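Researcher: Re-running this chain for the archive, since the previous output was lost when a drive failed. Same request as before.
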Amino acid sequence: MTDQYYKKFKITSTIISSLSESLIQNDAWERNYGLDTCIISDKIWCKEPLLATLDNRFPIDFGFLIRIPPNTVYNWHLDGVRAAGVNLKLTQDTHSHTLFGEPLDDWNDKFVELEYDDNSFYLLNTQHRHCVVNFDKYRYMFSVQFAQTKEHITYQEIYEWCSLKGLFDE
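Model: Regenerated structure tokens:
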């Protein structure tokens, strides 16, 4: 069971995925938490039916792109202020892995992989250990940051609301 780490939404991307090529050509990349990031206008992401629905219940502070260079590992971590995120992988032809893990001992971790489907949004538990291993090409991801930080909201609260509203893929 992977629900404690991530869950796929049944509403797919229609706007961001269709604009992905132009979005990643943006010149406004900045370095945040060891990643290249770029803010995306709410005029774009709020047109996504899923994100508009989530924003009505859990206000979204901003949407942004994440760029990870080839042959890079973004090490095991918990996100700084985010309790949860909603991610959409924009580059489907990249060889990369998103892993959620539990330490077994000082040398080994047990992990599960999130394998992104095309145009699909996922709710991620960003307060659970996760990492990204990226291989031969730049990897681009769209994500959101909710206005409420981990001190005020949990992944489980967002998960339960989404589940009650029937937003998840079964």
